[in-house]
Amino acid sequence: MTSFVLDSSAVLASLFGEPGGDSVVAAIEASFLSAANYAEVITKLIDKGVSPDDALEAAVQLRCEVAPIDEERAAAAGVLHARTRGKGVSLGDRFCLALAQELGLPALTADRRWKTLDLDVEITLIR
Which of 3, 83, 96, 101 gets the most CB atoms within 10 Å of its CB? Predict the structure, then answer.
């Protein structure tokens, strides 16, 4: 099974039953999620009306490896700002991209804009 670094948009598509979410479900157990994107998933679930307890439970049930944020990963995400400025790439996006770069894995996302980025990261769209 192919491993990916998951963007929060891909994880949320799987949780909300959106198009492309099934491909995330198939890959999730062999994949990685940055702790920043893990926080984004919980935040978005709460924004959609899910209780904090249920949002935490849903996040725990993801069964993917959550990669902690350390000084090196934070620096890599920060440095990506220079190459992604003005392209709609958030801090959470950069954590995903930086982790994908570090691990040499494709990033799995629903964000089509990522295909226009000139980075050393393979981008795989879920839809």
Answer: 96
Compute the C-alpha angle 44/119/112, nearest 5°.
45
Longest dimension (CA), the chain: 39
Q: Is the pTM of this model over 0.85?
A: yes
CATH node for 5-125: 3.40.50.1010
Q: Nearest Cα to 63, choosing from 127, 1, 125?
A: 1
To which residue do tokens 């670094």 refer? 5
Instruction: Name 28's Cβ contacts closer than 8 Å, sequence gap at least 6.
Output: 6, 11, 14, 62, 63, 64
Q: Which pLDDT does position 44 carry in this prediction?
A: 97
